[in-house]
Every structure is written in C-alpha cells, then in structure tokens.
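Here is the promised in-class demo. Please do not try to memorize the tokens; focus on the logic of going from shape to residues.
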C-alpha cells in the first residue's frame, strides 16, 4: 500500500525535517502515528497524501513510484485516498451535505445514491439536523465531523487522519474511532496521527513513532506494554 525507502524531506534550504524514513504498510493495516510536537508528523502525512514529493528517496503508493508521476497521474492516485486535515479544508460556500457529497460527485455516483449515503453518514456523526448548514455557522467540532464524513464517504483504499479527534468530546471521538475501525475491517488501510493516549491504548493498534525526524514502530506485548522496535520489512 505504502512504501518509503530512505526518504528525506526539507523545506527550501533548511535542514531535513524527515531523515532516512523507511517503512512499508500492508493493505488493510491500521497504525497510529505519534510523536512530540515538531517531530514531523504533519510532514510525513503530507508525503503520504501526495501533498509533496520527497526531497530524496523513493515513495511507492499502490505499487507505483510517485516520484516519476505527472500531475494527472497523481490526481488519479489521490482519488483513492481519504484525508482528514487538521484545518478541515471545507468549502465555505457549500453546505455540510454538499461538502460530504463532493468526493462521490467527483467520481460520478448517481444523485440518489449520494443522497442516501450522505444522509446516513451525517446522521451517524450526529449532524443529521445540520446538513444544510454552511461551515462558517458550525462549531469547530461540527466542522471536524463534516471533514471526517467527507474523507470516509467514498470508502477510500487509504485513510489518513491528522488529529481527527482533537476538537471532539470523548463520546463523539470514540464513535468516530469505531467508524475508522469498521472501515479498516472492510479493507481500508488507516493511519491516524494523534496525541490522544487514551484512544491509542484503548484501540491497541501499532504505533509509528516519530522523534526528531526519525521513525520507529511500537507494538504492544501480551501485558499491553509498548515495545519500541526498529522498523524491518512490512507490517
């Protein structure tokens, strides 16, 4: 699904923010991405959703070398990826319904199917009464739920979520994590960047741990203690 080989990233002429990143994720896996502020989590997510190309090294997505792709080819790959951004990136002139429906309209789904799917998902995230509301009239937590619904509506092959529960109360946050788990059981590969220790402990998925631009993996042992390991091969 995703493979990074000796990947480095720098912005402009500054120092590398990611250095020699090596990992490969199996289709259908679920990982948390964690690390202190400034460790490079958002930069790594940006590489995974093809918002940037690496400064050096090789990134392979869905078996294709993205370093050599033209813009049109990258756009086709992005249609298989759902992304929840920290800043939401909702279109302010579109209703909550139309923001969530957008990925389905882009790929040409029938309007009846769109209406049924969007209505059901908005009800599930607790926004059934707000489907005609414009994003500027919604709270931060409500906007975040719209952004999450938009990211998952087309059942992407890969879902990347950057702090998806950051503006949500515990009940809604846990409900959305269960939605991610359900998508994962249906085959979606998921990476969730989070600082929420409770969620990571409760769901127990392996953690990709970033520290000072370098990556390691943490997995639970039989006593639910977290063991840091050097990344080797595919997991």
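The designed amino acids, position by position:
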């Amino acid at each position: 699904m995703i493979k990074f080989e000796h990947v480095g990233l720098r912005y402009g002429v500054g120092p590398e923010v990611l250095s020699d990143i090596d990992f490969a994720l199996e289709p259908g896996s679920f990982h948390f991405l964690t690390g202190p502020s400034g460790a490079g989590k958002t930069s790594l997510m940006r590489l995974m959703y093809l918002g940037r190309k690496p400064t050096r090294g090789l990134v392979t997505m869905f078996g294709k070398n993205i370093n050599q792709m033209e813009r049109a080819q990258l756009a086709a790959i992005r249609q298989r990826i759902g992304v929840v951004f920290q800043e939401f990136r909702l279109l302010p002139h579109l209703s909550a319904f139309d923001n969530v429906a957008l990925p389905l309209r882009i790929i040409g789904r029938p309007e009846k199917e769109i209406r049924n799917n969007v209505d059901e998902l908005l009800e599930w995230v607790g926004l059934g009464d707000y489907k005609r509301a414009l994003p500027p009239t919604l709270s931060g937590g409500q906007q975040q739920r719209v952004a999450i619904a938009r990211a998952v509506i087309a059942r992407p092959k890969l879902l990347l979520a950057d702090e998806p529960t950051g503006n949500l109360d515990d009940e809604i946050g846990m409900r959305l994590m269960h939605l991610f788990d359900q998508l994962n059981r249906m085959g979606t590969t998921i990476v969730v960047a989070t600082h929420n220790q409770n969620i990571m402990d409760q769901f127990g998925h392996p953690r990709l741990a970033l520290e000072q631009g370098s990556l390691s993996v943490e997995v639970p042992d039989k006593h639910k203690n977290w063991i840091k390991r050097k990344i080797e091969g595919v997991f």
